[in-house]
Amino acid sequence: MNAHAADKAQMVLRDSLRNRGTAFSEEQRRALGLVGRLPSAIESLDEQAGRCYEQLSRRPTAMDKFIYLDMLHDRNEVLYFKILTDHLAELLPVVYDPTVGEAIKDWSRDYRVSQAVFLSVDRVDDIRESLQSFGLGAEDVDLIVCSDAEEILGIGDWGVNGVDISLGKLAVYVAAAGIHPGRVIAVNLDCGTNNTALLNDPTYLGNRHSRVAGERYDQFVDDYVKHAAELFPKAILHFEDFGPENARRILDEYRDEYRIFNDDMQGTGAIVVASVLSGMKVTHQGFADQRLVVFGAGTAGSGMADQLSAGMVRDGLSEEEAKKRVWLIDKQGLIIDDMPDLPNYQQVYARPAAEVSDWTRTDGRIDLLTVVQQVKPTILIGTSTVHGAFTEEVVSALCDGVERPILLPLSNPTERIEVMPQAAIRWSDGKALVATGIPADAIEHNGTTFTIGQANNALLYPGLGLGAVVSGATHVTDGMLLAAAEAVASQVDPTALGASLLPPVENLRASSATVAYAVAQAAVRDGVATQEHDDLTQAVQDAMWQPVYSNEQDV
Questions:
Q1: Which of 282, 309, 421, 517 has the fewest CB atoms within 10 Å around its CB?
Q2: What is the pTM (predicted TM-score) of this model?
Q3: Using CB atoms within 10 A of its CB, is residue 385 exposed (0-12), middle (13-18) or buried (19+)?
Q4: Running DSSP on this structure, what letter comes out for residue 365?
Q5: Across the chain, how many H-helices and E-strands are there?
Q6: Are 195 and 149 in contact (CB under 8 A)?
Q7: What pLDDT does residue 512 have?
Q8: Does residue 517 carry a catalytic annotation?
Q9: Dist CA 229 CA 174 (whole Å)
Q10: What's the longest Cα–Cα distance across the chain?
Q11: Catalytically annotated residue among 169, 173, 254, 431
């Protein structure tokens, strides 16, 4: 074998999208210079997947499984996504939340290799060159997921370590909706970190200074958005796990000009809308009838408030009337307009001080129980990460106020959830319509089986992205988000006692196709579609990449 052939063989084996390992045929091995580089056996993809899944199953912990799958992804993406797609409900918590949070904590120490683009606030002149480093052209990218890792899941600021959140999100897009893995890019925006443990960790691989803010930060983000949009004009720019104030500012600044989507605000809000739509089928109410209390008023909580209040406006209320039906509670208690230094995303929902002047206060704060007793909410949402915050007294007060309240304790993982679903069903005597942020087993109560839906964004954002790609949407509109929520809610009948508010995650690809169809239709209605299809159902199916080896000999 000459040097050129040897180089060719090495390139194929190192290219995770082309490498088939033991599935290369004899002809392919000879053509690619792989003779003698692989064992004699020639396996099918199913045989490879069976062996790898058995190896995976022997890994004792979720983190061991994460590392195994991460290494497989870097070696053979088709095989990786075959396993992930075939076992998605089982492996979703491994490749994404909650296991990815633990992987992020040790990312620098355990660094292996990363198929991502790292952009540094200290080297803004490198942004364009870095984004071009994969050799992809203007027509070659459908989706870019970026994070500055300031607010990773429930674990906070993790700097460059947070790159795995972008990679994990892309893995779900591919497995759940068939976004092509060769047409996506993961990006980390390294702005420094305020995590002192990282700054003093000798193994840390990111910028060793405090997190940059203000005008310099804004310019960095602006340069990223403009370069990404210019280089890849058809790509959706997905923002993930930014700090709450930055997340809203960035979304407001760019969403009318670029293909921007923020999953923490828009995706989480939309999956809550889906839960509420299902709940209202039981209560026979509309959005205008709701009174919303959100416990935990950060990015996710305020995004939920935004989308539910928008639903109230669609249902006939004025914007001012809708805002009056929302109560936000954060660390300082009920958000009141005389509180100093309220972030912009809380100011719009701050209650007038005069309105609550005679409400009971504890240590100067108006607490959750008092708000529930005073407001009698129809919807109580938890995004606080305060485990056990929804006490028996709170749940009882909620049920005293309305017959069938919608109760959504959405914080995760389990040690951060506001109330365990078993307790919520027991304390409400089965009256509360419950969905959670964690997977939960069915619950038996007074002879009825209660199926608890998981308000998992994976039910929504992959299909939303696919629908945007199929339609060539120039923007992600509120109409597209609502269509996605309605499509998720349409997949269940919640009216029987104990029925789930949301579909299961076991068949996410079918669910994502349903969402994508509705989103593409909404893009046409909203006038942002650049592609229309005579047979939209087939167009969605054709757009979904399948984890199979191509039939071409020269791969």
A1: 282
A2: 0.92
A3: buried
A4: B
A5: 23, 14
A6: no
A7: 97
A8: no
A9: 21
A10: 86
A11: 169
